[in-house]
Amino acid sequence: MTHTEIRKKFLDFFEKKGHTIVPSSSLLPDDPSVLFTTAGMQQFKPYYTGEADPMKDFGSLNTVSIQKSMRTSDIDEIGDESHLTFFEMLGNFSFGLKPNGSAKGGPSTLFKTSYFKKEAIEYAHKFITNEMGLTISHVSVFKGSSSTHSTKPQGGEPVESTSSGQATVPKDEESKKIWQSLGVSDIREEGMEDVFWGPTGNSGPCGPTTEIYCKNTQGQDVEIWNIVFNEFFCNGSREQLLSNKTKLTPLEKNGIDTGMGLERLVMIAQNTKSIFETALFSPILNLIPIEDTRIKRIITDHSRAIAFLITDGVRPSNKEQGYILRRLMRRVITYGQIHKMDLTIMHDIFAKIHEIYSPIYHDLDRNLIIHEFDNEKEKFEKTLKSGLKELAKIPVFDASGTFKIYESFGLPYEIIKELGGEKAKNLNREDFDKEFKKHQELSRAGIEKKFGGHGLLLDTGELKAADEQELKTVTKLHTATHMLQAALRKVLDGEVKQAGSDITAERLRFDFTFPRKMTNEEIKQVEDLINEAIKKDLPVTFKEMPLEEAQKSGALFFSKQKYPPVVKVYTVGPDPSTSSGPPFSRELCGGPHVTHTGEIGQFKIIREEAVSSGIRRVRAILKE
Q1: Of 67, 180, 340, 431, which has the fewest Cβ atoms less than 10 A away?
Q2: Three-state secondary structure along 305-367?
């Protein structure tokens, strides 16, 4: 069974069970507490807590998705048979079932009735055994545990407290009985660390889980599906939860959150010994002219992650998501150099990734991925040879000296640790990260001193820039955002209204009202309109005027934003008060902006996606 057939089978199965199919969200989440989207439930967090209404946004209390995901915690483990940075999660989700079993949303129909343990387990069992034709080797259930909790629950009945003040989360007898009724006899009870799913990020929904295992061709039990029963809200991270440093509060409505790794399911379905022997990986792996299996797996994994991160708007840099992308790129480049691999083979590797995934993810841009990789390679190769020579001179590797090598030559920690061999035996990631954090704090202190006590040179909420160079970039992107809204309104017949925006030094993000997915032709028309205006080097000017006058002038404004009594109206193109020709765009804004559109560079839309029902999102970048 191909990965394409498995995807379709999964989505079709749950659609027939009353689930709305929701597209994968970006790898860059809206949640500022995490770098990447790490699970399918991440885009659905507000629906478990009652902050958002699933009936309004999806027309259903139940959804299903195949989510692109990225986890950085496993980077040091990449190269074995199972760990990945980029992966995909199959998931079904249900929101809104009250603890007493009654559903929100009116009549008992498939779409208006949510579900909990019984249906979630029965659906999973049927999909694995009937639809996939696989055998479940064993399942796990929660054996019960204790954790601190709030005495003022959000809803439902308070969790019972012990005399020590701990809250008892009871043993999951219900799930055990459901599995037994389905004929599963090997049911294993496990504790908080294994089958209690913590919140995504710094806080969020959580609860006990039940896990499904199948055997691979080597007879090993492989966890393929995790079904989380969201019954609690955790006001802290998973680590804090496990160490009893945070509180559990019963949710007002229970929910279902499941995650099944596509790569693992494909491995079981295709009867391979590891995920790297499946049709998702082997065509990429076979292109790499290196004998070392571990290195081939690292390059394969990192190449997939690089392709999807670039597609979602990440660019290599020394901070946050850009730092992770740079680490992955430089690790690939370094291994290529060490193993005397002609790195132009990466063009073929990215072409193969495009061939495998572009039928599913249409926005994968092979040429853009290759362009960005080659740019980083060109920058890094200038210092790589010097860095490797310097590495050979170091007698013993400690965190401070290792960080200096990273800072001077850009060699990733993983490479330094590996090449250091015996000399680096006492070097660990934790100490290296402490040095990195210390460096960031010193840099931030320098910026604060230079710019009057502010960590960012610019932080308006919408625009963020840490230094003067980033300020130049976000200024260009800010003007481009005005032009994007104007172009969207021209191409989409004025139906567009701004629903939010966010601009960093790497990309712009613009949310707008529109009832459907944009076509490729519409996206191209928007890009062409903006790039034509950039080539014309139109003037960008502003006038100050009273707010009421500005709003009556026809200038666009964001209805959710509070404006001062006197505002600036920015015009891209001829001023309508002095010219008969219409401007390209006209909008209320506090700046900053370029003075002429020619300063902006080439505008490129890298993704158009759904945010919620009736709200679309465009991510775009500027190219030199």
Answers
A1: 340
A2: HHHHHHHCCCCCCCCHHHHHHHHHHHHHHHHHHHCCCCCCHHHHHHHHHHHHHCCCCCCCCHH
Q: Is residue 224 within 8 Å of 261, Cβ to Cβ?
A: yes
Q: pLDDT at position 552, please?
A: 77
Closest CA relative to residue 332, chosen from 305, 314, 355:
305
Residue 315 in any domain: the answer is: yes
Q: Does one domain contain both 494 and 515? A: yes
Query: Would you tell me the crossing angle of helices 293-311 and 345-357 to the nearest 10 degrees?
Result: 60
158 in the same domain as 51: yes
CATH of the domain at 36: 3.30.930.10
426: in domain: yes
Q: Are residues 579 and 596 in the same domain?
A: yes
Q: Which residues contact 367 (CB under 8 A, 6 or more apart)?
A: none
Q: pLDDT tens across 552-566, in order? A: 777 887 765 667 788
- How far, in whole angstroms, is CA 247 from its chain's centroid? 26
Is residue 456 domain-resident? no
How far apart are alpha carbons 476 and 623 in whole angstroms? 11
Closest CA to 18 of 101, 123, 131, 97: 123
The enclosing domain of 577 has a CATH number of 3.30.980.10
Report pLDDT for 238.
74
Residue 619 DSSP SS3: strand
Predicted local distance difference test score (pLDDT) of residue 579: 61
Dihedrals φ, ψ of 440, to 5°? -60, -40
For residues 339 and 367, state if they share a domain: yes
For 35-55, the pLDDT digits (tens) are 899 999 989 988 887 888 888
Do 228 and 325 fall within a single domain? no
Report pTM: 0.71
Q: Is 459 part of any domain?
A: no
pLDDT of res. 415: 83
Distances (CA, A) of 304 to 93, 289, 317, 467, 542: 27, 17, 19, 31, 45
Helix/strand/coil (H/E/C) assignment for every residue in 503-520: ECCCCEEEEEECCCCCCH
Last residue of a domain, one of 223, 252, 269: 269
Model confidence pLDDT, tens digit, residues 390-415? 888 888 888 888 888 888 888 888 88
Apex 45 CA angle, 39 and 46, nearest 5: 160
3-state SS, residue 541: strand
What's the pLDDT at 303? Answer: 98
Backbone φ and ψ of 171, nearest 5°: -60, 140
334 with 349, same domain? yes
- Domain hosting 218: range is 3-269
pLDDT tens digits, 572-595: 988 766 666 788 998 888 778 899
Say yes or no: 172 and 307 in one domain: no
C-alpha distances out from residue 589 to 108, 372, 477, Å? 48, 32, 14
Decide the pairing of beta strands 566-572 and 540-546: antiparallel
Q: What is the pLDDT of residues 496-509, one digit of tens each?
A: 888 888 888 888 99
Torsional sign, CA 37, 43, 44, 47: positive
Phi then psi for residue 141, to 5 deg, are -135, 165
Q: What is the mean pLDDT of residues 455-468?
A: 64
Distances (CA, A) of 379 to 149, 230, 323, 375, 423: 52, 47, 15, 6, 28
Q: Looking at the structure, tell me whether residues 298 and 435 fall in a common domain.
A: yes
- Give the tokens for residue 188: 């294993």
| Residue 167: count of CB within 10 angstroms of its CB | 22
Q: Dmax over Cα atoms in the chain, in whole Å?
A: 82
State the total domains in the chain. Answer: 3
